[in-house]
TrEMBL record:
The keyword Membrane applies. This is Glycosyltransferase RgtA/B/C/D-like domain-containing protein. The chain crosses the membrane at residues 40-58, 65-84, 90-108, 120-136, 142-158, 165-187. It comes from the Bacteria. Keywords: Membrane, Transmembrane, Transmembrane helix. It comes from Methylomonas albis.
Length: 370
């Protein structure tokens, strides 16, 4: 388990859920933890979704082209390092992937023709929508992957081999995905006992990215002053310029002494995020966020493109791996969850080898896109 997972299992056991991570995952974990304490229950759930998706995808898309050869090709896909490397880590990303994979496999069985009962086709479509909604509830940015899968499902349900048919499927899918996304926000808001305002992290990150790329020193300091004021911080813009990296939003809060101060206990065993900020401060930051993007859309886009390179693994000096965690387990987590298990010999042997392998093409997450 990485730090995110430790936070979530603590919330599951306490029965108090924050919206820093999707509350539904902690709620599900509360159930599985009663049956199989620890990470094993969640591991079986997420791997069950992945392999259910593999089975359904095989029968829908691979089996017609030869069972043995096609099975080998699908197996190679599942054991690519970007996928296999994180499949044993407890992550909301894994549950999202399992949900998307399973939904894609279900959609592949929708055959609205004379060979399939129309009621069965519609039920398969409804099940596809429900599983995609689960993926969005587990991780909100599943919204983007939901649109093409929904487009495919709608096309299979109302097959029309024309440009109009493709456009209709795409527009309908986007509208339905947006409805699911909005409903997800409302549901997560109701499920959360603590509201942490995680959007503030993205807002601060975006504003810092624009400040870094501004050439006018006066404007840099002026925008920084507004940003710092909304976060109960003070100081000069210079440490922020040195600390900023598109790799991770928290870097701008890690200057020593801190220029932008994270609220007390914001990232501890009970995540409070930014709930200590007043409504007035949050509103001021939200306004500054929108104004900064509208005033400097090109600089904001450059910032976001730089972030995307890190996310897709296109930057050789960064390879984030949730399965090779550092040895410094947080003390507050250790008190609440227990000391980490002794590292296995296998992991000890892999630790020095993996960093050199991460820069090879096989470990490029962008490989999954193809």
């Amino acid at each position: 388990m990485c730090y995110d997972a430790v936070n979530q299992i603590l919330e599951a056991r306490e029965g108090l859920f924050s919206d820093w991570h999707p509350p539904l995952m902690a709620i599900i974990w509360r159930f599985t933890d009663n049956i199989m304490p620890g990470p094993a229950g969640m591991l079986f759930l997420q791997l069950g979704l992945v392999w259910a998706g593999a089975y359904l995808t095989f029968h829908a898309f691979f089996r017609p082209y030869g069972g043995r050869v096609a099975a080998l090709l699908l197996g190679i896909l599942l054991f690519l390092p970007p996928l296999f490397g994180i499949s044993g880590a407890i992550l909301k990303d894994m549950l999202m992937w399992g949900g998307l994979f399973t939904a894609f496999g279900i959609a592949g069985h929708i055959k609205n023709d004379n060979k399939q009962n129309p009621r069965l086709a519609f039920r398969l479509f409804a099940l596809t929508v429900l599983v995609l909604w689960l993926a969005i509830l587990i991780r909100h940015n599943a919204f983007f992957a939901t649109i093409p899968i929904l487009s495919f499902a709608i096309f299979c349900l109302y097959r029309q081999n024309s440009v109009f048919g493709l456009v209709r499927s795409a527009v309908s899918a986007a509208a339905l995905a947006l409805a699911l996304f909005v409903a997800t926000g409302a549901i997560n808001n109701r499920l959360a006992d603590r509201h942490t305002y995680p959007w503030i992290a993205n807002a601060s990150f975006d504003i810092a990215g624009v400040i870094k790329r501004l050439e006018d020193k006066g404007r840099q300091q002026a925008i920084f002053d507004q940003l710092a004021s909304s976060l109960n911080s003070t100081g000069s813009v210079e440490p922020l310029l040195k600390a900023y990296t598109p790799m991770y939003w928290r870097e701008v809060f890690r200057t020593k002494p801190p220029t932008l101060q994270l609220p007390t206990n914001s990232m501890e065993s009970q995540i409070h995020g930014f709930e200590s900020l007043s409504d007035l401060q949050r509103q001021a930051l939200h306004t500054l966020w929108i104004q900064t993007i509208l005033a400097e859309p090109v600089l904001w886009l450059r910032h976001r493109l730089a972030v995307s390179k890190y996310v897709l693994g296109l930057v050789p000096d960064n390879s984030w791996s949730p399965v090779m965690m550092a040895k410094d387990f947080p003390v507050d987590f250790e008190r609440a969850y227990g000391a980490p298990h002794k590292q296995l010999n296998c992991k000890s042997c892999l630790r020095p080898v993996c960093p050199s392998m991460l820069n090879t093409g096989f470990f490029n997450p962008g490989l999954i896109l193809f």
